[in-house]
Amino acid sequence: MDSTGSVARQWQKWAARKGIDPEKVMKIAHGVRALEIVKAVAPHLDAEAEVREIEELEVNDQHGVAVMPGASDLVGSVPDNRWAVVTSGRRHLAEGRLQWAMLPLPRIMVPADEVSRGKPDPEPYLKAAELLGVAPRECLVIEDAPAGIRAARAAGMKVIGLTSTYPASELKDADVVVEALRQIKVSQMDGKLRVKV
What is the span of the domain harbouring residue 93? Predict the structure, then answer.
């Protein structure tokens, strides 16, 4: 899902209501758990309460939210038990967005509210590998944010950077960078998945 516009809109509105510099918020608003963002820019506020407010606004703001070209085909090319969603959003937000877009809910999801440390810490990706029953070195992550790329690399995983939120220059720590999901092709051979970019 491309929800960049909704995320930016709601964080900017939140920052303005709270008297916080929106630019300071937007520098860290993508790819990091909302809890860490609030704690970083407004340590004087009740972070949990603020996150609930922000994510409820995001769930209800679908303006400009869209399925990325190639997302349905990519997800459809991977067996259900071989992929997961690891997100900096909470389960309520992630499931709401996927349902709104009529994309399948993954069997395995690791949302922000089900880990103790979010990206760039490797915990979310390590948990996904464990739930998938595969070694981290056998995982391939598709990420659109530097924090997520750092998390996947720290977990020992290969990473494809996607330029949907940040330019390629900020995704340089990925193994390869693509502009669109449709550039990623998955096939199966002898029970193993093969990825071509």
Answer: 71-196
